[in-house]
Amino acid sequence: MLGPTPGSFAWSETTEGVLNAREKAHLIYQLVRSQMDEGLSRLVWRLGHSSVRKRAVEPSRVQAPDSALCRRVEARVAAHYSPALLAHCYRSWWMGALVGEALGIEADAEMLYVACLMHDVGLTDAHASCIAETAFQVTGAREARRLALAEQWHDDDAIRLYESISYHLNPWLDARRHTPEALLLKYGAHMDVVGAYRHLLSEEALRAIHRHHPREGFRQEITRSIVSAPHRAGGHAHCLRRLGFARLAGNNPLEQYATL
């Protein structure tokens, strides 16, 4: 048995995001499971049997939530992310939210927005000194939880926000065991980085997302991060690098929108 998916609050705080041998095997299983699931989803979609084809998903249906925490997070990420990474986080939110509309996955709008904007905080210069010690998704999750608690969120909700981020490097998550926020951040981030499940969004939606948040320079920056950043040995990012994730990012079909 492979056991639970690594990335829970308790697991992350205990391990600093380092996978043991069983969990590394689980990561490989997730990659295979994700590719099989996406292939089946794409086939059903092409045959015209997908419920996604019957569900109208308009980009205009996605509206950024407005709260004190959201405004605080927007200012924080704008100050610390590079332009390419900032645009990626906003695209991840759009993509995740629209996948939610397409698949009928109902997430807490504020939590999803904050999770998407903060999921790569651990890659910023402000946290460069700890990336070799703590997996970057754990660093971002901790920062998000701290900000949520400062805004008087209940700790259960702050941990749910934490886990939305700490799970996001897993290529496949079970909808029966993980929250909508974790699922949709995973969908959005992986779609933007490697193009996974892009068939769930219309051409119109993808063009609208990229007009608002261009991907200029993103492929180079994310590939450099995967290949060159001193990620904690044994963490998700380190293992995904060894499994060829940089090649997937470099061949992302969504790069066709880089010139919009």
Folded structure, characterized:
This protein has 260 residues and is an all-alpha fold. It has one domain. The protein is built from 13 helices and no strands. The chain has helices at 9-15, 21-46, 51-54, 68-80, 83-103, 109-118, 136-150, 155-166, 180-194, 203-212, 218-228, 236-242, 245-250. Helix 4 runs parallel beside helix 6 (109-118), helix 6 (109-118) crosses helix 8 and helix 8 packs parallel to helix 9. The longest helix is centred in the N-terminal third of the chain and has 26 residues, at 21-46. The model has no long low-confidence stretch (mean pLDDT 94).
Please specify the SSE layout and strand pairing.
Elements: H1 9-15, H2 21-46, H3 51-54, H4 68-80, H5 83-103, H6 109-118, H7 136-150, H8 155-166, H9 180-194, H10 203-212, H11 218-228, H12 236-242, H13 245-250
Structure described in brief:
By secondary structure, this protein is mainly α. It contains 13 helices and no strands. α7 (136-150) runs antiparallel to α8 (155-166) and α8 (155-166) packs parallel to α9 (180-194).
Task: Give helix % range.
Answer: 55-70%
Structural class computed from helices and strand pairing = mainly alpha
Number of domains: 1
The value of Rg in angstroms is: 17 Å
Shape descriptor: globular
SS element count, helices: 13
Task: Provide tags for this entry.
260 residues; globular; mainly alpha; HD domain-containing protein; HD_domain; single chain; 60% helix
